[in-house]
Structure formats: structure tokens, C-alpha cells
Amino acid sequence: MSMTPASPSGPAVPQRFADRHAAWLLRHSTPPPSLFHYTTADGLLAMLRSRHLWATDSRFMNDPTELVYAANLMRSEVESELGRSGDPRKQELAAWIAAMLEEKCQNARIYLACFCTDGDLLSQWRGYGSFGGGYAIGFNPLQLFGRDRHELPPWRVLRQVVYDPDEQRTILRGWIQELCAPGVDWRWQLERNFPTLFSEWLVVFKDPSYREEGEWRLIQFGREFEGDPSRGQLCWWWPTQFRTRRGEVIPYADLDLTAAPAAAPAGPLIRDIVLGPTVERSRAEKALRLCTDLGGHPPPKFSVSKIPFVA
Taking a C-beta distance cutoff of 8 angstroms, is the pair 203, 168 a contact? Predict the structure, then answer.
């Protein structure tokens, strides 16, 4: 069995694991030039002024199936692949995954900033764009990976949402089969070599009814453990902040996008601003051009929604 080089502190990564992980990363490696974040006028001004982005705790998203859909899917695949086995190793793996899923759904600090590939979606204007009176901000995806003063590994990642249930099950089934293969130290691989894999799946696998959104997600991991999370060996956590939304208190992470790594490709953070269908274009564009000129950054491209929409 081919292996990647061993680390001085533990087993090597089997080549098949490395190949699966490389395929997972490749799936997310080519985002479009602009990714659109729908927001209100207040949200737009805050981002233009501060170059900060708020990432919401995944347990407090608008979608009521957030985490639940993916967790149920994982439980189903674990039951299918491991549940009927009399092999103690497989039973132990199934129990570990079940406990991990329960812990993450209850306690995980996974913060999400959500983007669409389309800057003019009716569903988004209704849900997030101030009911047609908001804005879609086109972010440069290559400028989203700043090194914030609070941030430690694992670094934030950008992932494309997977909507196809068959693809979701194929990904899960392949990894489960590899983990329970003879001779594999699955606990070491998950804790040391692929520590964020299940966290990513929980927030990247979505119900296919949301497919129209074409969503990408900037994921900020809000805590890091040394070894087994069930033993409570917490190394660090992101300093959570709080805001309100329709009378509810919402935890979030404040991501500083001004501190991009020196090796980051050149280009503006904000490429485009799409005005919502009920925004008065002339006045809004004049005000925003003044605002962006005063900000000392390359001005974005302005456009207006083509959707016939009445608030």
C-alpha cells in the first residue's frame, strides 16, 4: 500500500486517503471571479468602510435544516456501511462518528459567510436583500483568506456547496470504506490528518431544494482540539461576538479581510455591486461612487437587477 511520507509524530497518510482529500480540494479550487453576498444598505456600508465580513454561527442560520440535513445523511450512511457489521473495529468507528456528530451539532463553533454565484436571484432579494431594496456585493474570492489576529490553524476555507444527494453519499461512502479498511488507524487519520473533514461536510452538504442558490461558503473554524474532542482538550477558540436578528441573539465571527497574506494575488476585495430591483439607481449609484472613492480602494463595477420585482 503506497503511503505519503510519515510525520515524526505518527502514522503516514495512506495514498488513497491523500488522493481522496486531493479530489475534495480540487472540487473547490476554481471559484468564479466574483461571489455575491446579499445584504441591506446598512450591511453594504459596513463592509465598504471596514473591509470586515460577519460569519454567522452555523447553528443560527436562516435555513432550519442547517446541520440537520447533513448529520442525518451521515448517520444514514454510517448505518448502511457499518451498522450491521459484527466487526468490533467497524462498530467502534460507527460509535465514534455518532458521538462526534452529536457533539458538533450541539457545540461546534463553525462560522459561515455565504455567497452565490449569481448576483441577481429573486429568492435572495426576498430573503436577504432587504426584500428587493438591498445589494449584492461581488467579492473577489482570492481575497477572503486574511490572517486575522485571532486565527490559528485550521485556517478558514472556501467550499462549494454540494447539492446532489448521490454525490454526497458517494463521498461519504468512499471515506467510510477507506477508514474501516484493515490496517488503517482511523482515529489517528481523523484526529491528526483530516481534523476538519466532518465539519466541512456538515455545512457543505445541503438539501437539493436549495440548488438554485449555487452557493459557496467561507468557513471559519472557531475552535481547535488537541486529540479527541470528546476528551475536551481544547486549544483555542474564536472570540464570538453577538448581534440581533428579528429579536433573536445571533453569535458570529468578525473576519478581518484587510489582513490578507503577503502572497495573496493582487486585485480588489470588492469587484461588483448589484443594486436591488427596488433601489432607485441614480441616487444610489451616486452615493456609492462617492463612498467607494473616499475609501481609497479600486471602485467596483455597478449594475442593477434585471428582475421585475415590486416590494
Answer: no
Dist CA 87 CA 130 (whole Å): 54
C-alpha to C-alpha distance for 100 and 67, rounded to whole angstroms: 13
Work out the end-to-end distance of the chain between its first and last CA atoms, rounded to an integer number of angstroms: 62
Closest residue by Cα to residue 160 from 66, 27, 3: 27
Residue with the three cell numbers 453577538: 242
**pLDDT tens for each residue of the chain, 311 residues long:** 444 544 445 567 788 888 999 999 999 999 999 999 999 999 999 998 888 999 999 999 988 889 999 999 999 999 999 987 788 889 999 999 999 899 888 888 899 999 999 999 998 998 876 677 899 999 999 889 866 555 556 678 999 999 999 999 999 999 999 998 888 888 888 877 787 889 999 999 999 999 999 999 999 988 776 655 555 566 667 889 999 988 999 999 999 888 655 555 567 889 999 999 888 888 888 888 887 765 556 788 999 999 886 65
What lies within 8 Å, CB to CB, of 144 at 6+ separation is 53, 113, 156, 158, 218, 257
301: helix, strand or coil = strand
d(CA 233, CA 90): 25
Q: What is the Rg, in whole angstroms, of the alpha carbon atoms belonging to the chain? A: 21
Q: Is 56 exposed, middle or buried (0-12, 13-18, 19+ CB in 10 A)?
A: buried
The closest of 265, 43, 37, 244 to 136, measured between CA atoms, is 37
Q: How many CB atoms lie within 10 A of CB 136?
A: 27
List, in sequence order, the alpha helices (H) in the chain.
15-27, 41-50, 68-78, 88-107, 122-127, 165-179, 186-188, 197-204, 281-294
